[in-house]
Amino acid sequence: MDHGLISGRIGYVFREPALLRRALTHRSFGADHNERLEYLGDSVVNCLVALELYDRFPQLSEGELSRIRANLVNQQALQGIAINIGLGGQLLLGEGEVKSGGAARPSILADAVEAVIGAVVIDGGFPAAQQVVRRLFGENLAAVDPGVSGKDAKTRLQEFVQGRGLPLPVYTLLGTRGQAHAQSFEVQCSITELDILTEGRGGSRRAAEQDAAGKAMALVENQ
Fold first, then answer.
1. pLDDT at residue 48, rounded to an integer
2. Distance between CA atoms of residues 147 and 63, nearest Å
3. What is the SS3 assignment for 88?
4. pLDDT digit string (tens) for 19-63?
5. pTM recorded for the entire structure
6. Domains and CATH numbers, the chain
7. Which of 4, 59, 114, 167 is 20 to 30 Å from the Cα of 36, by its Cα?
8. Is 162 exposed, middle or buried (0-12, 13-18, 19+ CB in 10 A)?
């Protein structure tokens, strides 16, 4: 584990390096694992992202803010952050998890991000965690468009077709790839009346459907 590498990427140097080690330790590796830190980090991340959205978008309602936060703080988004900072290569995993590809498993990566932020709270307090969250979520926060980001792609596509009196999009599972611990799903989105057919991929069927819906939404907006 390279403490300096992770500290540099999250923008925080731990006074107590053992906390970072624990945050990156999966339960398969040993008893001093990251689950309690992940529990803490989960609450802290949701709170801090909520605070950022509250400050940035005073015009939005509670429901709109909640939907945007759900798009920013979920397993897929946290996995993306973990990949961006190279967290998978720093995880301490048991032999079985190493062999089964645990370092790339979405749930393990997402939990590790939350555990790291939980560790920052304990080591440096709430202000330090706020700075780390702003750094890690900065690009995603900057990309928020209040006009569309409050609703996911499937919801926006559904509202689009309903507003035109058309049948709902049809989602069809085309297949899955990979082993059980790291499957990739392929889903087709069809809107026959608009002659639209898209395919999406993701680490879950829901994620694949969202991907396909996003592609379909891009097409209908350009028609």
1. 97
2. 13
3. helix
4. 999 999 999 998 999 999 999 999 999 999 999 999 999 998 898
5. 0.71
6. 3-142 (1.10.1520.10), 153-221 (3.30.160.20)
7. 4
8. exposed
